[in-house]
Each structure stands twice: as C-alpha cells, then as structure tokens.
C-alpha cells in the first residue's frame, strides 16, 4: 500500500483533535479533494528518490510551469544573504523561488508554517514557524541559528498570500519587519524579489467575503488547489538591487521594511 505523504486524517488528528472529533466525514473528504491529497501523494510516490531542490525542480516540470528571471545577473553564488519576496501565489511562488535560489545562489531555506513540515521531501528547505504553539520558542531559536549561519534565507514578509486591493491590484498586506531586524543583527545583505502572478478570482472573492462576515482564514485551505490551477503557466520574476548590511544602520527596521515593500512593487515598472 502506498505510503501517504499528505494524510489529512492524521494532520487533523495531530493539529486539530477537537475539530477532528466532530468533523463530518463528507467535510473531511471535501478537504482531501481541495488539497489534492491523492494527486499530491501520486507525485510524491513518483519522486520518491528526490528531495530538496531536486524535488522542487520535479514539481515545476511536472506541472509544466516555466519562468523568466529579469535582472538575473544580480543573482550570484552567495552565502549569508537574506532574500525577500511578495507572496502572490501562496505556494507555487515559494517552490519556484526556492528552486531558483537553491540552484543559482547556493543553499537556501525559508521560514514556513509548520504544517508544511509534513511535506518531508521539502523539509530540508524549510524553517518551521508556529506562532501560537508550544514550539514557538524552539522555532525562533532555529531561525536565529540559520540567520547566523552561511545559509541563504528567503522571507515572505507578509506571512500570507497577497490579496486583491480596493483598486484591483494584487498586493501583500502589511509586512513584518523580522527580515530587517534579523538581517541587521546577523549582518546580512538583503536582496528584494518581485514575483509577478496572481491566484484565481474564486480565491480573492472567498477572501473578501469571509473577511466581511468575520470568518477565519479559510481560503488558505484552497492554496493547493490554486497551485494546480497554475499548471502550464509562465511567470516573470524581477530581481532588485542589493541592500548591503552596511546600509542598514541608516534607517530603522520600520523604514527599511516600508522601503523594501515599495521597492519590490516598483521593480516590474523599471524593467
């Protein structure tokens, strides 16, 4: 019997035992459908010898996704560098950027929701983040250890997928300044990246209306479904100018966070 890499029943039992006890079976089955449990497990099975950047390359090829890098000359073999990006896709952009940076710049990892640690083939590319659980202190120490090391770290400072704004633009919401404070503390250069892409209208409409009625972030359950909707698409990635660690004392963490946010969203216009 094929081992399940993604097992919704076990995840619910582990992360939400109270919910799992009363959740109707049809609801659990629907959840398995929208996260593409069977399709993902089939991919994991066929890539059973691959992990890390080899696995991300396999996923990209499997979904027929292509991408162009504008300003690629700014990406060189590097160590101890912080990369930051907007987060328009909430999943596929992370896979593509980790693949790009790992192959082009050297060992690169990203802080992610600890639920993604269930994807063991990508575990070597992740730093778990659990803001509300008992492991939060341990995870914070792990992040510090990697920031102090030579490993490159990719941050999505918004912490969640971009949303459609009132003017129709797809943009991140407020950025957290951790990438600046940690880069300052450990003397890391910062390289901004703009990923040009968007999710489906269904995703943005769901996000809009659930916010209106005060529901929790249920659209995140559809991010795997969004990933499969990107099948066969081409994306453009824009690389910005490096902010050296020597420059960081010139502005506060808040000022650098706002500067980097604006810089990223101007990258496409400058190309």
From N to C, what is the helix and strand string? HHHHHEEHEEHEEEHEHHEH
Q: Please give the number of β-strands.
A: 9
Strand content: 15-25%
What is the oligomer described by this structure? Answer: single chain
Largest sheet: 7 strands, mixed
**Count the helices. How many?**
11
Q: Tell me the Rg in angstroms.
A: 19 Å
Global geometry: globular
**Helix/strand-derived class?**
alpha/beta
Summarize this structure as a short list of keywords or feature phrases.
7-stranded mixed β-sheet; alpha/beta; 271 residues; globular; two-stranded antiparallel sheet; 11 helices
Show the helix and strand layout.
Elements lengths: L7 H8 L1 H6 L2 H10 L2 H10 L6 H10 L3 E5 L10 E5 L6 H13 L3 E6 L12 E4 L6 H13 L3 E4 L7 E2 L5 E2 L6 H8 L3 E8 L4 H12 L10 H7 L4 E6 L13 H18 L1
Parallel strand pairs: 1-9, 2-5, 2-8, 3-4, 3-5
Antiparallel strand pairs: 6-7, 8-9
Helix pairs in contact: 5-6, 8-11
Describe the protein in words.
There is one protein chain. The chain has 271 residues and is α/β, with parallel strands linked by helices. Helices cover 42% and strands 15% of the residues. The chain contains eleven helices and nine strands. It has helices spanning 8-15, 17-22, 25-34, 37-46, 53-62, 92-104, 136-148, 178-185, 201-212, 223-229, 253-270; strands at residues 66-70, 81-85, 108-113, 126-129, 152-155, 163-164, 170-171, 189-196, 234-239. A seven-stranded mixed sheet has the order 1-9-8-2-5-3-4, with helices on both faces. Strand 6 and strand 7 (170-171) form a beta hairpin. The protein is globular and about 55 Å long. The N and C termini lie far apart (51 Å). The mean pLDDT is 90.
């Amino acid at each position: 019997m094929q081992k399940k890499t993604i097992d919704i029943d076990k995840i619910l039992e582990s992360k939400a035992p109270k919910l799992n006890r009363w959740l109707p079976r049809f609801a659990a089955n629907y959840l398995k459908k929208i996260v593409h449990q069977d399709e993902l497990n089939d991919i994991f099975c066929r890539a059973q010898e691959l992990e890390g950047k080899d696995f991300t390359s396999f996923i990209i090829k499997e979904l027929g996704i292509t991408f162009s890098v504008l300003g690629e000359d700014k990406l060189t073999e590097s160590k101890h560098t912080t990369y930051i990006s907007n987060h328009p896709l909430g999943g596929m952009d992370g896979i593509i950027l980790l693949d790009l940076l790992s192959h082009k710049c050297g060992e690169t990892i990203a802080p992610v929701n600890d639920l993604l640690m269930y994807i063991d083939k990508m575990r070597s590319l992740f730093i778990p983040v659990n803001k509300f659980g008992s492991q939060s202190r341990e995870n914070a120490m792990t992040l510090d250890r990697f920031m102090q090391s030579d490993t490159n770290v990719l941050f999505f400072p918004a912490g969640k997928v971009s949303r459609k704004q009132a003017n129709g633009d797809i943009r991140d919401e407020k950025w957290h300044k951790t990438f600046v404070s940690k880069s300052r503390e450990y003397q890391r250069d910062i390289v901004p990246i703009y990923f040009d892409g968007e999710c489906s209208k269904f995703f943005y409409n769901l996000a809009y209306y659930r916010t209106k009625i005060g529901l929790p972030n249920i659209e995140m359950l559809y991010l795997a479904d969004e990933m499969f909707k990107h099948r066969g698409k081409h994306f453009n990635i824009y690389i910005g100018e490096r902010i050296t660690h020597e420059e960081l004392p010139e502005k506060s963490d808040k000022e650098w966070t706002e500067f980097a946010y604006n810089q990223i969203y101007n990258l496409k216009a400058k190309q």
